[in-house]
Amino acid sequence: MSAKSGFEAIPVGLDMGTVEMTLDEDTVNDRLELVQWEARELVDKLHLAPPGIGIVQHAVMKFIKLPDMKASIWARSEHEFLKPMKIGSKIFIRGKIVDKYVKRGRKYLVTDFETVDEAGEVLLRSRETSVYVE
Amino acid sequence: MERVARTIRVGEEIPSLTKTAFMPIDPEARNVIHTDDYTRRFGGRGALIGGSTLLSYVLEMLYNYFDQSWLYHGKISVSFIGGGAINGDVLTAHGLVTSVEPEEAGTRLNLDIWMENQTGAKIVVGDASCIQ
Hints:
Low-confidence stretches of chain A: none
Oligomer: heterodimer
Order of helices and strands of chain A: HEHHHEEEE
CATH architecture of the domain at 13-21 and 50-131 in chain B: Roll
Radius of gyration of chain A: 16 Å
Order of helices and strands of chain B: EHHHEEEE
Mean pLDDT of chain A: 94
Strand order of the largest sheet of chain B: 1-3-4-5-2
CATH class of chain A: Alpha Beta
Number of helices of chain B: 3
Low-confidence stretches of chain B: none
Distance between the termini of chain B: 7 Å
CATH superfamily of the domain at 13-21 and 50-131 in chain B: Hotdog Thioesterase
Helix content of chain A: 10-25%
Strand content of chain A: 35-45%
Distance between the termini of chain A: 20 Å
Shape of chain B: elongated
CATH topology of the domain at 13-21 and 50-131 in chain B: Thiol Ester Dehydrase, Chain A
Largest sheet of chain B: 5 strands, antiparallel
CATH superfamily of chain A: Hotdog Thioesterase
Radius of gyration of chain B: 16 Å
């Protein structure tokens, strides 16, 4: 049994697993309401979800995979949008820890996420650096 | 695209977007920074609005300007600074064009972006780019 725990025990390269998300109307409308999205034609005419709809799942994935983590505070957040997300479709978000370091006494995790559609096409690439609090 | 009415120049701002921050507060939130108890224990003003919500405010400003092009060509990199935001803060997202680069698919606009609260304090800073 390893003596390491919490941040120390997190291996760089840790697979964060895959989360499936169905972009049904309720899910999209909940998001629109939460973020007060006013550009309705995106949804009503184009039947597309607002950009970034799946990003909130990134933190959820970290909390599932890292049970010792008490708080996660975004320090930096990078995203590349490659294709729109269609209402009614399923998306799959997979993640991986690509780095960790300590700076000025704070513990940082760097995680890459990729969101793909049902055909496996990449819709969004993200890299997030967050402060890890135990 | 359709809503880009005119060519914007380096040094000009795209239209800003203002929202009154709001997020339902769950005292049992898994991420304790979204609870009043935890943040106030450390001198904070209250439960922090989620970073993905703040990011969405900035994304809406960028979508409003770049229209659907943002969904295919948008890139954003932001840092969260200062004390974050709590419910009721009035937040304004800004974007200032810093350079223009020709690309095969069109012209890419590079912007400095930031979000400030009602006191003028910046809480999000970074850059973004998209093909116009």
